[in-house]
Amino acid sequence: MSNTPKQSELKSPSNEDGGGGNSGNVFGFPHKVDLDHVLKHHAGNIGFVQIIMVIMSALTLPPGIIFPVFGNTELPHRCRLEPEVEKELARRFSRSSEDTFNSIATLVGPWPSSNSSSFVNWHGFGCKRYLVPLMSVTQNTTRLLTIPCNNGYVYKYSSDQYPGGIINEWDLVCDRAWMGPFSTAMYMVGMLVGFISGGMAGDYFGRRQAALVACLFEAVSIITVSLSANFWLYTTFRFVLASASSVKITVLLVLCMEVTTPRPRSIINGIWAFIQYFLLRVFLSPLAYWFPRWQWLHGAACMLSFLSFPSIYMFPESPGWLLSQHRQLDALHEIYKIYLANRKLKWNNNEEPALTEDAFINLIRQECAVIKPASPSAQEGIPSKSEFQNTRKPSKNGNIITLTLQCVLLFAGQLATTYGLLFYGNALQANIYLVNFLNSTTQVPATVIFVLLHHYCRKRKIPIVIMYVGSMIGLSIAAIYNLVVRPKSDFVLNICINLSLIFLNSAMNMVYMYVLELFPSEARSLGLGVASGFGRLGGVLCPIINTLQSKNFHESPIFIYIGIHILLLVNSVCLPDTCGRSLHHSFDLNRAEELGMRRETEVSDDSTIQGDEEEKDGDTPNWTSKLDDTIASTHVIQSTSHINDDF
Fold first, then answer.
1. Regarding the domain delimited by 50-72+177-317+390-574, which CATH topology (the fold level of the hierarchy) does it fall under?
2. Which of 137-146, 208-217, 625-634 has the weakest average pLDDT?
3. With contact defined as beta carbons under 8 Å apart, do 645 and 627 qualify?
4. Are 418 and 536 in contact (CB under 8 A)?
5. Rounded distance between C-alpha atoms, residue 510 and residue 491, angstroms
6. Residue 97 banded pLDDT, cuts 50, 70, 90
């Protein structure tokens, strides 16, 4: 869909109600717009526009955050000797039935014996070599001098591990082993920057324009990362890629939610989660199998992102954001484009002719004027500040600051556990392709659980708490079993981690919806950006937590994640609950809305009866219904009763 026209180009169709000939937005349309009602009864709250927007938004996001599952694969390694010695050792063991790599590694430097536990700390070996290589494995090694590897490393490749990651390409082992987790941590920091800047840009410039600019940075960074010749160039542009992708996630997720109504929102979020967390991730396993070099894998995995700019260019701007900017006519223009697209692409045949834009706007104008005429004094009280200035008001409100900090902790714990368990797959004694595939499939039941709970449960916090309890139980079973039984494989551990990921992925979907409902509409994009942005600090910690298994015991990260679950439960209990709407409507208009609600209760018996009759009539707008403040702008009618948002 094309760009939003200038307000001066959108003249009011009628001079009635103060709208004729005035290009000023507030006075050109002096009524408060019930966005949910217009979408549901006129434009369509779940149709072609909403479905194609969420599909293209999710499908064109690069799976960069999960790329380290293959790109950072750690392989067993040993010191490389002089070329002549390497040839001699290869010739000696060429006909051996034993593991050639382990046999040679035993002669080159300190190496665990064949009788060692399957959970031996391999990270402590392969970093030093004997000053003089052994001639036999039976030779005493207690007093032999060792030196650091000075000729590079030889890696042990297997069909269970990805062969062409950045670890073995740039020798990020031993004294450089910190660089692998550092690159992942920097990606998380980039997401932090992107979510915060995306929230600010989305509230100031608009959702669509912020996403378009992010697409350009994203495309450049994808190409540069895939062509990186050294680690620092790779890490720098992975940081840029994370920032640009996070800006898109912030504004596009909010945009997709702002063009629908409460009930279909679970479907929109479910489609987003299914594509982003299942389809894109599950296809990463066959792509990794087909492309054994990380450069080709990265380029192939991010290829769909180049469709992002032309797709978003066709999107409408958020009507909710335009209303919060007091641009009612621009908002109705965008809603009219949604109305036309949904009407033309309906499955059922509608023989009624489509309304012209003037007729459409006039219809909404008449509904607003009949139900609640505009008050000149109220119009004068509308603040003229920019949206960016309005979003700075939370810093002056202690409750909003506390709420934001709690949301940051919620995201931090959620991301630390979810991505920590996903990255922990590198340390499992199993096929990495199968592990990633199974981890990705957990999103299918997670999405089903989320959609059902969101559809049938009005409370938002209780399902999240239940998901955290289920995840913690699964991890506890895995940790205790491995400590007591000491199995030879990680089969049970992998099963329990996948069960835990089902609950965590479902909770992730719920958390995004829950946090959106906690913030008022004038700061929703910024609130989500700050919470999810600083929450990426949890993602920064998860690579560090996973390194504990190489320094302590194999299950040590699992116990850390169990502790994080406990903190999440405590924090969730302290957070307020929501029922499909924001707890606050507007920073400026909270007091005015309270007064408005009191005035609305002083209604005559005749008006009450008339309102009840209108509510029973499905074709008559129900303007006294409870609006969903999650999506509505700051200029909607404050209402007192419940709206049945059946679609």
1. Growth Hormone; Chain: A; (1.20.1250)
2. 625-634
3. no
4. no
5. 29
6. low
